Every structure is written in C-alpha cells, then in structure tokens.
Amino acid sequence: MTIAATATATAASTVAQASAENRRLPTRTPGGQRQRVWIAFVFAQDAEILLLDVPTTFLDLAHAIDDLNLAAQYAQHLVVMSEGAVVAEGAPADVLTADLLAAVFGLTAHVVPHPIGDGILVVPEKR
Q: What's the predicted TM-score (pTM) here?
C-alpha cells in the first residue's frame, strides 16, 4: 500500500472512529481528532513539499508534532517566519539559534549538540 493510500485509509478510519465514539457528525469531532484527519488528508495528496503553519494546533500531547526539537531532528530545511516575513531559512542547526528563538518566539533557550546522533537540541531556560 502506498503512503497516500495508507494516509487516506487512516483519515477515513479516524473520521469513522471519532464519529462513532462521540456520536457526532465528522464535522463535529473534537479538535485534535479533526486535526489528525486534516493532516492525513494532506499526506494523502502525496505532495513533494508541504508548507505547514502550526499544523498541530489543537492536537493532544500524544499526537503533537509541533515541537522545535522534532523539527530540528527530522526536517532538512526550516523556514522561520515572523509577522508574515521570512526571518531565517536553512538547515535546522543554522536556523535555530538562541538569538533567533529569543527574537521570534520570545524563548530564552540554549541550543546544544544533540546527545544522541547528529543535530541540535533546544533546551529552554527555567522561568
């Protein structure tokens, strides 16, 4: 089964499961389940490039992928935008710097080499 076919089947299954569990129409499923369906539909289109703007908003923590460390680990190229403008783009290690995190996200953090394998790890400071 292709990735697109698997994603389509997953989306259909998620809609059916959410509808059955909640006795609601698919359009009235909880936000996290509905968001998972949208993500599956996007993958089902089998596009070469996906532009995502916080695609995991409303997902519960078990399914959340909106995380700087996951982006740093799995993405080959990141584009950081602020107020509609591209602020930085490139490899995660080049883009996710302490200065950029502070300027764009208001996050005080250390960016250190990942302890296992290649890449970086963003470690927020305690507030």
A: 0.54
